[in-house]
Design brief:
- The structure is a single chain.
- The chain has 3 domains: 7-94, Rossmann fold (3-Layer(aba) Sandwich); 105-196, Rossmann fold (3-Layer(aba) Sandwich), CATH 3.40.50; 200-288, Arc Repressor Mutant, subunit A.
- 43% of the residues lie in helices and 16% in strands.
- It contains 12 helices and 11 strands.
- The strands form 4 sheets. The chain has a 4-stranded antiparallel sheet with strand order 5-6-7-8, with no helix packed on it. It has a 3-stranded antiparallel sheet with strand order 9-11-10.
- Helix 6 (127-139) runs parallel beside helix 8 (161-169), helix 10 packs across helix 11 and helix 10 (225-235) packs across helix 12.
Length: 295
């Protein structure tokens, strides 16, 4: 602001102009900023969704009105079009733009870790971040695999419905927080993860799977990706025999050599530090040695 001496004058004129306008605030952050400027919002939707703002405007009637819409980096589908169709002049006000990072390596690592299920969860706090990850996954040829992962083993939690929308359009239903805030999002994640990874009683040990490790009697044991993929396949049917052919399909990049299953099993037993957790069933496959397979 030091290099722009006219800004205070413009700001005062803008505040005065807004004082004579109807102000609709989508969420509490906007409401707080409006009130901090000495203004007052006319209305704010309980859902904190732009769809409800649009329906309120259309219900009130917008024919002949000029409506300024603050944009947050991603377009709001159908919002401006619906208002224009109802006779309004719509002015888009972009306050910032989202651009891809100069170095895509961290994003690529995130996509790869999600696809490999070495993450327990993904969290998002903005819709453009979701779009960026999905777009990069598509560029890598991994979009379908990423969607499968977050619809299965990897929990995904969004801070609110606006952030969740691009995932829902991709066929993913994120875990919703109780309230659309960062704190409740973290709390919801803390509730969700234990429910997704029940503790198993295996060969006298307590076992819980994590993204890149296994808790054995409360001690974290890092497990490489291939053995972890095999363990996840066994854990989906705890205590039951899983055929070698099925386990082979679960291993990333294993081809058709069933010896890869034997190698992954040996590495898994070593990583767990308790070889008795995984039992060999001769000529059939492997199973987790559940203490009570029928329970």
């Amino acid at each position: 602001a030091g290099g722009c001496p006219q800004l205070p004058v413009v700001g005062g004129a803008l505040r005065e102009a807004l004082g004579g306008a109807r102000l609709l605030a989508r969420g509490p952050k906007v409401t707080g900023a409006v009130r901090a400027a000495g203004l007052r919002e006319e209305w704010s939707p309980r859902s904190e969704a732009m769809e409800e703002v649009r329906e309120r405007l259309l219900a009130d009637g917008v024919a002949g009105l000029r409506v300024a819409v603050q944009l947050h980096g991603e377009p709001v589908p159908g919002f401006a079009e619906a208002l224009r169709a109802a006779g309004a002049e719509v002015v888009g006000v972009p306050v910032y733009r989202w651009l891809p990072p100069a170095d895509l390596t961290p994003v690529d690592r995130l996509v790869d870790a999600t696809v490999r299920r070495t993450l327990d969860a993904l969290t998002f706090t903005s819709a453009p971040a979701v779009v960026s990850v999905l777009r990069r996954a598509e560029e890598l040829g991994l979009r379908e695999a990423l969607v499968d992962a977050v619809n299965g083993d990897v929990a995904v939690v969004c801070v609110g419905p606006v952030t969740a929308r691009p995932l829902q359009e991709a066929g993913v239903e994120p875990v919703p927080p109780e309230r659309f805030r960062l704190g409740p999002m973290v709390q919801r994640l803390c509730e969700e993860l234990p429910a997704r990874t029940p503790e198993l009683a295996v060969a006298g040990h307590r076992v819980q799977l994590r993204g890149h490790a296994v808790l054995v009697d409360g001690e974290a044991r890092p497990v490489p990706p291939a053995p972890m993929a095999l363990l996840r396949a066994l854990a989906r049917r705890p205590g039951r025999v899983v055929a070698r052919a099925e386990l082979l399909r679960a291993l990333p990049g294993a081809g058709r050599d069933e010896h890869a299953v034997e190698s992954a099993t040996a590495r898994l037993r070593t990583a767990l530090g308790a070889p008795e957790l995984v039992r060999t069933v001769v000529k059939r496959g492997y199973r987790l040695a559940l203490d009570d397979p029928e329970g």
